């Protein structure tokens, strides 16, 4: 029987008290932005904070909208806000890097 390894995203109790999250949440559509951010965090867990479709193709805004079930206008605006607030970094190869994920990852086996 094989053992499955699960990667977990652990949100601290004060996640919604972080200054960046509070500011984003207070913006028009802010609650949608925060939900999209959490979905991006979850999607990046297996890649230690990096978001790419595969080694050759980076995610674009349309792809992120599709995989997170988020309106494309929300995705476009949120990506700008997250970049401005240093919540994400878009690298030269268009990989989206979420550095805070490294401190939020856990694992377990079943």
Topology:
Elements: E1 5-9, H1 19-26, H2 30-44, E2 50-51, H3 61-68, H4 72-84, E3 89-90, E4 96-97, E5 105-109
Antiparallel strand pairs: 1-5, 2-4, 3-4
Helix pairs in contact: 1-2, 2-4, 3-4
Major β-sheet, in short?
3 strands, antiparallel
Which spans have pLDDT < 50 for at least 5 consecutive residues?
none
Number of helices: 4
User: Spatial order of the strands in the main sheet?
Assistant: 2-4-3
Cα end-to-end separation: 10 Å
**What order do the helices and strands follow?**
EHHEHHEEE
Fraction of residues in H or I helices: 40-55%
Overall pLDDT confidence: 89
How would you classify the helix and strand content by structural class?
A: alpha+beta
Overall morphology: globular
Brief digest:
With 110 residues, the protein is α+β, with helices and mostly antiparallel strands.
Describe this structure in words.
The protein has 110 residues and is of the alpha+beta class. It is built from 4 helices and 5 strands, in the order βααβααβββ. The strands form 2 sheets. Strands 2-4-3 form a 3-stranded antiparallel sheet, covered by helices on one side. Strands 1-5 form a two-stranded antiparallel sheet. A hairpin with a 5-residue loop joins β3 and β4.
């Amino acid at each position: 029987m094989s053992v499955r390894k699960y990667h977990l995203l652990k949100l601290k109790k004060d996640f919604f008290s972080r200054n960046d999250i509070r500011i984003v949440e207070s913006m028009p559509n802010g609650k949608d932005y925060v939900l999209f951010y959490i979905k991006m965090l979850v999607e990046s867990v297996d890649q230690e904070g990096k978001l790419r479709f595969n080694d050759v193709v980076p995610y674009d805004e349309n792809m992120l909208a599709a995989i997170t079930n988020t309106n494309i206008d929300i995705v476009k605006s949120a990506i700008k806000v997250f970049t401005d607030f240093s919540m994400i970094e878009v690298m030269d190869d268009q990989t989206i890097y979420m550095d805070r994920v490294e401190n939020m990852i856990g694992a377990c086996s079943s």
